[in-house]
Amino acid sequence: MSAEKNGGPNQIHIVVEDVTKRFGDHVALDQVSLDIPRGETVVIIGGSGAGKTTLLKLLIGLEKPSSGKILVDGVDIVPLGARAMNKVRRKFGMVFQYAALLDSLNVLDNVAFPLREHTRLSAREIEKRVDEKLTLLELPNIGHKFPSELSGGMRKRVGLARALMLEPEIIVYDEPTSGLDPLTSRLVDKLIKETSERFGVTSVVISHDMTSALQIADRIFILSNGQLVGEGSPQEILAGKVELANEFLRSSGISTESVLSGSQ
Predict the structure, then answer these.
(1) Which three-class secondary structure string do you get for 158-204?
(2) 98 falls in which pLDDT band (50, 70, 90)?
(3) How high is the pLDDT of residue 256?
């Protein structure tokens, strides 16, 4: 393991240890192990059916593995009951694939939802906190708007504002660039990096977008058919040191020079 597990800026935040998940005869994940250091951005990448969504559900406690351990801040969450798991889940913020905003609520009410569910703050204090987060994410004065009035990139930022409201230690992004045009995708990449730096959160990104992964990741893990088949830094991936990653690079039409220069 590459970082110290106790103390220091590179303390391991999440440990996945020999995790297997079966659904009947189907093995969705097969003895997957990985470490996620505190404050880093990790991208878990793979094609359809690779096991990414299953791993996401295990990380946030929506599913239990068939075997193995998942440690968050040193605590194995696998045996936890519902009440204890809810406390652990407060450490996580989720940014869903299509922002998952409620169309019948305006931006203010969408972003305020976690505070109203989990705190006893006054309406005035909630509105103040929502405005602060929206302004930080360069979305001032849009609380009255409805999701249908927002661009795809704005919806992603509103979803991120909502995920940040309870000040989580970890943000999990589910396919954050899915369905976005290349320009908006790169803006979302920039937002993920800025959020990590500004709020000091650990970021776990579930993706099939190798261009995005190379832009934002400290480390990339590659899943295929439920197995972890490769890992490396963006530099190691681009140097061709991870075999399966080369297929993603070729299929994405990625230029090594453009990625390294930040122009992809």
Answers:
(1) HHHHHHHCCCCCEEEEECCCCCCCHHHHHHHHHHHHHHHHHHCCEEE
(2) low
(3) 47
For the chain, domain boundaries: 1-80+186-264, 92-167
**Dihedral of the CA atoms 178, 182, 183, 185 (nearest 10)?**
30
Rounded to whole angstroms, the Cα distance separating 170 from 14 reads 9
| Residue scoring higher pLDDT (242 or 70) | 70
**What does the radius of gyration of the chain's CA atoms come to, in whole angstroms?**
18
Tell me the per-residue pLDDT of 180-220, one tens digit each, with 9 for 90 and over: 788 888 888 888 998 898 889 999 999 988 888 999 999 99
Place of tokens 């406390």: 87
Query: With bands split at pLDDT 50, 70 and 90, how would you rate the model's confidence at 44?
Result: very high
Q: Which residues of 72-108 are buried (b: 16+ CB within 10 A; e: fewer)?
A: beeeebbebeeeebeebbebbbbbbbebebeeeebbb
Superfamily for the 1-80+186-264 domain: P-loop containing nucleotide triphosphate hydrolases (3.40.50.300)
